[in-house]
Write a structure and sequence with these properties.
heterodimer, A: alpha/beta, Methyltransferase, Methionine Synthase (B12-binding Domains), Chain A, domain 1, Rossmann fold, 2 domains, five-stranded parallel β-sheet, 10 helices, elongated, B: alpha+beta, NADH Oxidase, seven-stranded antiparallel β-sheet, two-stranded antiparallel ribbon, 6 helices
């Protein structure tokens, strides 16, 4: 009989192969995918997230855990009758127009995905029009914008104006991040949530979804 | 303009700086991640073709914040200005990990492996920084023959020197030095590139960066000590 704690431990330790093997073994024994997700995968990610907040582990550990969780989720999701049960929310993410930096944005996207969000990653140099279209097409709950330069972070204001103009402001929450971005800048933009690291972004996204 | 085409082996890659780029402030990764970093460095050594270029020019601080170089005026700010006020000669430089490494980073984005992307990105930053260290050492060696010294290096985007001023700095180089081009947002391509300057002084006045009075908490110069 499969020791299901191995799944939890594989996520915490970031062991992709063990996570996949344990998931397959558990399924073969008739354990439901929702149980594996709720009782082991999510709890594993919560634990590694807490360790990160406590300064006990670092970004690479978070990424390894997210990768292990995603490996397991990729097996489990197709088995769920209603996949919406596993999705915490839909998030459109991108680096704003003029900026080509994306590793931080990709870290956030990867962690969000690993933690159960559906993520539509628009890449870099994303125009306001592209953001708005993606929100509409995907019925997104949250939009995340990233910028690494003081010369490009100002474009976030244009995206927000375009969201307002499209009448989407009440339907989508806005998150921002990136090296030059600050909490006070988020306040200045109005109605935005700022996160200064990938794990905090996940926590913010969860909080915003809970407030919906 | 003097151009330096370097070998990866010319560079002194600093592991502690890579760990800092990966988010390890004050500690080192575990054995598994350390090995992944080493593998990524080995891969980078095959792909990266670092290069640098530099020029010398006359100049002077004309106020606490403004520097004029060959009639080009730059607002470098008070923090940098106070460290350059004894210089009347300057060396401007660009340094890059190279277009091949940029393409490698770009290709990695199509994979699903965020860990490899993250490591390669951090190592690319260190390659560019190591290239800066190489070129500034080269400049220091060159001016030392005349009994002169160099200051710290400073780059647009740091120490309150606005990144948009990078256009002024690039205007003093021939087009696309080392293949580096600026976009409208003053972002360099290849992304893993650095531009900057050093002052040249009569006495050795190498001073610590003024991180205590700077507000840019995410600055790469704000090194937390690795214990």
């Amino acid at each position: 009989m499969t020791d299901l704690n191995l799944l939890y431990e594989a996520v915490v330790a970031g062991k992709l192969e063990i996570a996949v093997e344990t998931t397959n073994s558990a399924l073969a024994e008739g354990i439901g995918p929702q149980t594996l997700i709720n009782e082991y995968l999510i709890k594993g990610m919560e634990e590694i997230g807490q360790r990160f907040e406590d300064g006990k582990v670092f970004v690479p550990n978070l990424l390894m855990s997210a990768r292990a969780m995603k490996g397991s989720l990729d097996i489990l999701k197709p088995l769920l009758k209603d996949s919406t049960n596993t999705v915490l929310g839909k998030i459109v993410i991108g680096t704003v127009k003029g900026d080509l930096h994306d590793i931080g944005k990709n870290l956030v996207a990867s962690l969000l995905e690993g933690c159960g969000f559906e993520v539509i990653n628009l890449g870099v140099d994303v125009t306001s029009e592209k953001f708005v279209n993606a929100i509409k097409e995907n019925n997104a709950d949250i939009i995340c914008m990233s910028a690494l330069l003081t010369t490009t972070m100002t474009y976030m204001k244009e995206v927000i104006a375009a969201i307002d103009a499209a009448g989407l402001r009440d339907k989508v929450k806005i998150m921002i991040g990136g090296a030059p971005v600050t909490d006070s800048y988020a306040t200045k933009l109005g109605g935005c949530s700022y996160s200064d690291n990938a794990n905090a972004a996940v926590q913010t996204a969860k909080r915003l979804m809970a407030a919906n | 303009m003097k151009h330096l085409q370097l070998l990866f082996s010319d560079l002194s890659i600093n592991r502690d700086d890579i760990y800092l780029n990966l988010g390890y402030g004050g500690t080192s990764p575990d054995a598994e991640i350390t090995q992944m970093v080493e593998n990524a460095i080995a891969k980078a050594s095959e792909i990266s073709h670092p290069s640098a270029a530099y020029i010398f020019c006359e100049g002077a601080m004309i106020s606490k914040s403004y520097l004029t170089l060959n009639e080009v005026q730059m607002k470098i700010g008070i923090i940098i200005g106070r460290n350059l006020d004894n210089s009347s000669q300057f060396a401007l430089f660009v340094a890059t990990a190279g277009i091949d490494y940029d393409e490698y980073l770009h290709d990695l984005k199509h994979s699903d492996d965020i860990m490899t992307q993250f490591l390669a990105d951090a190592i690319g930053s260190e390659i560019a920084e190591a290239t800066v260290r190489y070129v500034t050492r080269k400049i220091a060696d060159e001016v030392q023959k005349d009994g002169l010294f160099i200051t710290n290096s400073y780059s647009p985007g740091y120490c309150s020197w606005h990144v948009r001023e990078q256009k002024q700095l690039f205007s003093m180089f021939p087009d696309s030095p080392c293949g580096i081009v600026l976009n409208d947002s003053c972002l360099m391509h290849p992304v893993k590139s650095v531009s900057g300057l050093v002052g040249i002084t009569l006495s050795n006045e190498f001073r610590a960066y003024s991180c205590d009075i700077c507000t840019l908490k995410t600055c790469y110069k704000r090194k937390e000590k690795v214990t």
